[in-house]
Design goal:
Largest sheet of chain A: none
Shape of chain A: flat
Radius of gyration of chain B: 22 Å
Shape of chain B: globular
Helix content of chain A: over 70%
Number of strands of chain B: 2
Number of helices of chain A: 5
Largest sheet of chain B: 2 strands, antiparallel
Number of domains of chain A: 2
Strand content of chain B: under 5%
Strand order of the largest sheet of chain B: 1-2
Distance between the termini of chain B: 51 Å
Structural class of chain A: mainly alpha
Order of helices and strands of chain B: HHHHHHEEHHHHHHHHHHHHHH
Radius of gyration of chain A: 23 Å
Oligomer: heterodimer
């Protein structure tokens, strides 16, 4: 599992290095790509070295991911992605943050879902967080965040 | 002695308010496991946009100083180092707390941090102008090599393997080339409109340091973090001062090792603390007491990790080369306020830089005072469940990134880079060299391109970049740092 993951990660980096190198040496004007060319040569050499080591099963730095870790992070990653890539724009920053914050607390709170107190606690924490963020960003820093459908 | 004339700016109402707020906030954030000094400073940068450069830097400097010291609170009371720099403090600090000497351990750690920190800031005050004068004579090739040193040194030392560290640096340098080329105005590597103007440093910093922490907390799942907090009994502060000054050997070892390590780009507080602890143990007549709750262990470790804070800014302010990942984030803070560090910094912006340095001096004193009195509160905050911390950090990261240019593109950059960094870190890559590559990339590129143009009119690029005493010295440092790291990696593998 771990060896496969090393191959996958170093293969991804080698692929990226290849694309960077290809673009640097094929695009014009060449003067604009002078520095990227120098960097991409080192980038490709080092990434190929890492990839070959991973293919030979010699890459050992890092612990990789276990299935359990992946399973644990999945709900958080899904909520965060939907929040940042879609909801923040369409529902507005504050509404989306409140929903995502509450969902994250619900997904990761070890307390039982049948406990009314834990639900009340999550609602209070979410409300406090949004109030602080609104005061900080909207009132003090005057940041105009997207309001989405609530314009 | 120019710094004396700029103390007035530190003692204004706003500056003191920011200094106190930054110190208290930094102590609490530092005490919270998982919130590193680098991440704290990165998350604070968006709050400085509306401030004057002096006020913004005072806030960031206070946070940097106190997060390093604040990490000792959870190290002593919870046996969880708040930051890697506090690992050595857990060894004797927690043992002292378990013996009922928690308050004494906290007092010793903050007093030692104060002494180490003040010494470090004085080194910063006196060394920076000297080095800046020397750096005035640097040409394009020298500045190019200095930028490369910044990436290679940290790349060789920070990551799980030397090759992966250097590779992280290359990724950072490539990311820095995205957007418009400075000389010809050509669009390069623009795969998405969100990065048409290049990768903005601040969202990138927030993403690279905050998002991996958030995902790490998610990866732990629904777990109860039952951490046993030791109750703190009162201890007279005067006795703690007496104890620190009676352990001069540990204090001197810690302060001098921390200061020296701070000056070397990339080495960091973790190594400073552990090395100082080890040396204090070697030179102590009470070697056997180390690890059982000996005050010398706490004094050496804490004086070292705070003594490195000031010197880690010397290469940043004089050569634009950050000495540590947190210094790299501070560089981002300087750049967004239109201040580009370098040899002429003290001539161009004395009214900004000297108050900033002076505030770090005052910040050390405030850190000691508040640290001693709010340590118990900070330890209670440190017990906030990780899932709440993850949600808070994610929200702050999203708002902070958006606030930079009021653009969703920056939020996408933050989350994509952060997620990519989490997975890369699991395989031995490191965020620090990537960040340095991203920050030093434009400096390296502009000097490389200008140097190349000059060299074509002279004796060619090889002569321009590889000959001359200083060029040879700088290239040798690059080769030696990489060579030494490869040698020590091979040695470690052989031994294990």
């Amino acid at each position: 599992m771990n060896i496969f993951q090393h191959k996958l990660s170093s293969g991804f980096v080698a692929g990226l290095a290849f694309i960077v190198c290809y673009i640097s040496f094929t695009r014009q004007p060449s003067d604009a790509y002078l520095f990227p060319r120098v960097i991409s040569v080192f980038f490709l050499t080092l990434s190929l070295w890492t990839f070959i080591k991973a293919l030979l099963g010699l890459s050992k730095a890092g612990n990789g991911l276990t299935l359990n870790m992946f399973r644990n992070m999945l709900p958080g990653m899904l909520i965060s992605s939907i929040y940042l890539f879609f909801a923040a724009k369409f529902l507005g920053f504050y509404t989306a943050t409140a929903i995502a914050f509450f969902l994250l607390l619900t997904a990761y709170d070890p307390e039982s879902y049948s406990s009314v107190n834990s639900w009340v606690k999550r609602i209070i924490i979410t409300a406090c967080f949004i109030a602080i963020m609104y005061t900080l960003f909207a009132k003090i820093l005057v940041v105009y965040t997207p309001r989405g459908m609530f314009i | 002695m120019d710094f004396i004339f700029y103390f007035g700016e530190v003692f204004t109402f706003t500056s003191m308010l920011l200094l106190i707020g930054g110190t208290i906030g930094g102590l609490i954030m530092g005490a919270t496991p998982g919130l590193s000094p680098t991440m704290t400073v990165a998350l604070l940068i968006p709050f400085t946009f509306n401030m004057t450069p002096v006020h913004g830097l005072i806030l960031l400097g206070a946070a940097y100083t106190s997060t390093v010291a604040g990490g000792a609170v959870s190290a002593i009371l919870l046996k969880i180092p708040g930051a890697p720099a506090n690992i050595a403090t857990t060894l004797d600090g927690n043992a002292m707390a378990r013996k009922g000497e928690g308050a004494k351990a906290l007092q010793l750690s903050f007093i030692a941090s104060l002494i180490g920190g003040i010494f470090g800031v004085f080194l910063l005050i006196f060394l920076t102008p000297v080095l800046a004068k020397m750096a005035n004579s640097f040409g394009y090739s020298h500045t190019f090599w200095l930028a490369i040193i910044g990436v290679t040194v940290i790349g060789s030392l920070e990551a799980g393997s030397v090759v992966k560290g250097l590779l992280s640096g290359c990724i950072g340098m490539w990311l820095a080339t995205i957007g418009f080329d400075d000389i010809q105005g050509v669009k390069r590597f623009v795969f998405h409109p969100a990065i048409a103007g290049g990768v903005n440093i601040i969202p990138a910093l927030i993403g690279l340091f905050a998002i991996p922490q958030v995902i790490t907390m998610f990866a732990k799942g629904r777990f109860q973090n039952d951490v046993e907090q030791i109750q703190v009994k009162k201890h007279p502060i005067a006795k703690a001062f007496q104890e620190v000054f009676s352990r001069k050997r540990a204090l001197i070892i810690g302060t001098s090792i921390g200061s020296l390590i701070g000056l070397i780009p990339g080495v960091g507080g973790q190594i400073a603390g552990l090395l100082a602890y080890d040396q204090a143990k070697k030179f102590s007549p009470e070697k056997k007491k180390f690890g059982t709750g000996h005050s010398e262990g706490v004094i050496a470790a804490e004086s070292a990790n705070n003594a490195m804070v000031g010197p880690s800014l010397v290469p940043l302010l004089t050569l634009s080369i950050p000495g540590s990942p947190t210094a790299a984030v501070l560089l981002g803070g300087l750049i967004i306020h239109g201040i580009f560090p370098g040899p002429t910094l003290f001539q161009q912006y004395p009214e900004v830089i000297w108050p900033f340095i002076n505030s770090m001096l005052i910040g050390q004193i405030l850190m000691c005072i508040f640290g001693i009195y709010i340590a118990s509160l900070a330890a209670r905050v440190a017990q906030v469940p990780q899932f709440i911390m993850a949600a808070i950090v994610l929200g702050l990261a999203a708002f902070g990134s958006f606030a930079v240019q009021q653009s969703m593109g920056d939020v996408y950059v933050m989350v994509v880079l952060g997620t990519m960094m989490y997975f890369l870190e699991r395989f031995g890559f490191s965020a620090a060299p990537l960040v340095l590559g991203l920050i030093l990339g434009p400096i390296a590129e502009s000097n490389f391109v200008t140097g190349s143009l000059i060299s074509t009119a002279q004796n060619g690029p090889f002569v321009y970049f590889f000959t001359g005493g200083l060029n040879i010295l700088l290239v040798s440092i690059v080769i030696l740092s990489v060579g030494f790291s490869i040698w020590s990696e091979i040695n470690t593998k052989r031994q294990s």
